[in-house]
Write a structure and sequence with these properties.
single chain; alpha/beta; Rossmann fold; 6-stranded mixed beta sheet; 4-stranded antiparallel beta sheet; 10 strands; disordered N terminus; binds adenosine-5'-triphosphate; binds magnesium ion
Length: 239
């Protein structure tokens, strides 16, 4: 719809308005997010920090359309996510968002290149070019030599780089990473972060990163701090 594109030109990529999330266990309600307001523009690299239990992953799950908030509004490219069906949400996740998790989440019985090709199957983008696209993504993380190996035959840092290749293989414009360096030593962690920087700079992907580590957060250009389910600061990172 032509109209959609007219609107998108003037709207931020992501806008959260007064987002609340309440988990209910039996009779008890836990208010985990309390009135989150956050705007993220296309091409930003945002780091989110906060203590354990402050609500970072809950927030990421909402941003990634994996979960719906219990109150407030989420506009993705100007569209209210609340009005979308679960099929439409799945399509957004498959085409627009690449996920990288702390535990890599590679499938052990598939080769590296097959792991990277998986999102192409899920998003219906699979074609005879899939292998080429996967190779391109592996090149980006300097792993083009390892395509035929299996996850247990490469190091943790390499596995996380494969996860990044998998997240970017269909040129998803948004990459979300929750503690992607949590299982890596500082050298491997820095390595992985350099690739996020490269994807942001060269592909223009918007990156949203959750980390406990202030040094890792410094790879981003804006630092959002969450405390007790609220955003308490949002500052440009000066290098
Ligand atoms: N499905 C759920 N049901 C009930 N409570 C939940 C659920 N998921 C998370 N919580 C609670 O919500 C709070 C925030 O959890 P969340 O996972 O978002 O924290 P976090 O900031 O990501 O922490 P960490 O740094 O340890 O990963 C925690 O108190 C947690 O116990
Ligand atoms: Mg978490």
């Amino acid at each position: 719809m032509a109209n959609d594109y007219d609107i998108r030109d003037n709207v931020p990529l992501i806008r959260l308005e007064n987002i609340g999330m309440v988990y209910r266990i039996g009779d008890i309600a836990y208010e985990v997010l309390k009135g989150i307001n956050l705007t993220i523009e296309n091409g930003e690299f945002v780091s989110i920090m906060g203590a354990s239990g402050s609500g970072k992953s809950t927030l990421m799950n909402i941003l990634g359309c994996l979960d719906k908030p219990t109150s407030g509004s989420y506009f993705l490219e100007g569209k209210d996510v609340a009005g979308l069906t679960s099929d439409e949400l799945a399509e957004i996740r498959n085409k627009k968002i690449g996920f990288v998790f702390q535990g890599f989440n590679l499938i052990q019985r598939l080769s590296i290149i097959e792991n990277v090709m998986l999102p192409l199957y899920y998003s219906g983008l699979h074609s005879k070019n899939s292998e080429e696209m996967a190779m391109e993504a592996l090149k980006l993380v300097d792993l083009s030599e390892k395509g035929n190996k299996f996850p247990n035959q490469i190091s943790g840092g390499e596995q996380q780089r494969v996860a990044i290749a998998r997240a970017v293989v269909n040129n998803a414009p948004i990459i979300m990473a929750d503690e992607p360096t949590g299982n890596l030593d500082s050298v491997r962690g820095a390595d992985v972060m350099n690739f996020f920087g490269k994807i942001n700079a060269e592909r223009g992907a918007t990156i949203i990163l959750v980390t406990h580590d202030r040094h890792i957060a410094g790879y981003g250009r804006r630092l959002v701090t969450v405390k007790d389910g609220m955003i308490i600061s949002s500052d440009v990172i000066n290098i």
